[in-house]
């Protein structure tokens, strides 16, 4: 376990900036996922924090926010746990597996594929305005649960390896593949996202990668953001969640697209 509580060189200004990012990330994560778009880049700017420490500390903070969101959704939306809990169990194991191979699989390998997938998701959602308005399950019985478990395994592994947009991928999969409305999908996604964060932490904590003092400070901000975001989503409804989903996916495309340009394409073009 890491003895690091706060990284050297962490100034009050940097800490305040990271806490604001964590608060905003908790809100975004609670509504549609994708809070890592804000929180992880902010952590990577902290002096003295390695990329692995940033990823591990991000997971510690996120698990508090997603747990708060999941509890709030459970009280206000009552998602079907018969689908969400088995999906979460598979995702937890898959996330642990993903975290264990994260160092062996460079993020640059995945990012171009993720950008293409996100563009497809954004276009599919934008040009099908009725998508996710109401719950109309596409499958029942074993096929429904088999699809849910497959989604949990694939996205759980992805969250352990890399992570950006995990909540958004979960929401879209629950809407497009299983037939839930956006609000119900977001409620279930939070439960699964708790599991993926715990799975990754199950690998990072024994390896001493978590910066505990910073992580717990971020957890407090992330928790507040998660509470506010889940209450906003449940009060505003599925149309609001769909709108925020499109905004977050577009931001993810821009961010990851820039990474692909700087890491892969610009060096080739000289």
TrEMBL record:
- What transmembrane ranges does the database entry give? 12-32, 84-103, 109-127, 148-178, 210-228, 240-258
Query: Any idea where this protein resides?
Result: Cell membrane
- Highest taxon in the source lineage: Bacteria
Q: Does the keyword tRNA processing apply?
A: no
The record's principal subcellular location, in a coarse class, is membrane
Provide the family line: Belongs to the 4-toluene sulfonate uptake permease (TSUP) (TC 2.A.102) family.
Q: What is this protein called?
A: Probable membrane transporter protein
| UniProt source species | Geodermatophilus dictyosporus
């Amino acid at each position: 376990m890491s003895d690091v509580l706060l990284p050297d060189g962490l100034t009050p200004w940097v800490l305040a900036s990271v806490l604001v990012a964590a608060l905003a990330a908790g809100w975004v994560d609670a509504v549609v996922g994708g809070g890592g778009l804000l929180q992880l880049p902010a952590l990577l700017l902290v002096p003295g924090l390695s990329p692995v420490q940033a990823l591990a500390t991000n997971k510690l903070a996120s698990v508090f926010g997603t747990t708060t969101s999941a509890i709030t959704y459970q009280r206000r939306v009552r998602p079907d746990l018969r689908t969400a809990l088995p999906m979460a169990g598979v995702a937890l194991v898959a996330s642990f597996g993903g975290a264990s191979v994260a160092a062996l699989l460079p993020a640059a390998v995945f990012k171009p594929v993720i950008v293409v997938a996100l563009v497809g998701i954004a276009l599919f959602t934008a040009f099908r305005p009725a998508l996710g308005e109401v719950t109309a399950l596409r499958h029942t019985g074993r096929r429904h649960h088999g699809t849910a478990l497959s989604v949990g395994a694939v996205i759980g592994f992805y969250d352990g390896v890399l992570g950006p947009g995990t909540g958004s991928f979960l929401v879209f999969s629950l809407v497009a593949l299983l037939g839930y409305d956006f609000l119900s999908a977001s409620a279930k996604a939070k439960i699964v996202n708790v599991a993926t964060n715990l799975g990754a932490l199950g690998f990072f904590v024994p390896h001493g990668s978590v910066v505990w003092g910073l992580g717990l400070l971020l957890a407090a901000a992330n928790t507040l953001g998660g509470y506010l975001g889940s209450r906003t989503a449940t009060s505003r409804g599925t149309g609001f969640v769909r709108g925020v989903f499109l905004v977050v996916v577009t931001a993810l495309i821009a961010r990851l697209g820039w990474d692909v340009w700087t890491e892969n394409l610009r060096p080739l073009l000289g």
